[in-house]
Amino acid sequence: MSTSNINVRIPQLVSLEAAIRIYYSRIELSNNDIRELFGKIGSATIVKLKRKAREVMQDNKRPIWNAKLVNTEDAYTAWGLNIADLERRHKKLQMLEN
Question: What predicted TM-score, i.e. pTM, was given to this entire model?
Answer without folding.
Answer: 0.89
